[in-house]
Amino acid sequence: xxxxxxxxxxxxxxxxxxxxxxxxxxxxxxxxxxxxxxxxxxxxxxxxxxxxxxxxxxxxxxxxxxxxxxxxxxxxxxxxxxxxxxxxxxxxxxxxxxxxxxxxxxxxxxxxxxxxxxxxxxxxxxxxxxxxxxxxxxxxxx
Length: 142
Hints:
The protein is about 50% helix and about 5% strand. The chain is mainly alpha-helical. The protein folds into two domains: about 5-65, Winged helix-like DNA-binding domain superfamily/Winged helix DNA-binding domain (Arc Repressor Mutant, subunit A); about 85-135, no CATH class.
C-alpha cells in the first residue's frame, strides 16, 4: 500500500500536469483542487523540487510548475522518492534488500515466488505509466 504522502505527491503532480506548459499553480489552488492539507503539500512540493520534478517561482505570477514533461514523469520514480522501495517483502527489494527473518531458504520459499511475480508486474506498470498516461486514463471506465 502506498502512503498518503505518496498519493498526495502524485495528485499534486497530476494537477500540475493538467496546467499548460510554463503555467504555474499556487499551493493553495493545488491543495483545494486535490483536497490536500496545505502545510503537508508544502513539504511534499519541497521534496519534489529537490528531486527535480517541479520548480517554484516567486512573485505575482509565481507558483509551482513541472520541470519535466508529463510524458517523462513515471509513477514508479515518484513512489520510490516518497515511499522508498517498491516491494511487499524485504527480500524482494532492489535497493533495501534484507533477508526475511523467518525464511530458511529464499530459492525454495513459495511465498517469495508468488510475491516476486506480483512485484515484477507492479514495477512494470508503475515504471511504464507516466503522468500523461494517467491523464488519458482518468476518463476511462474502471
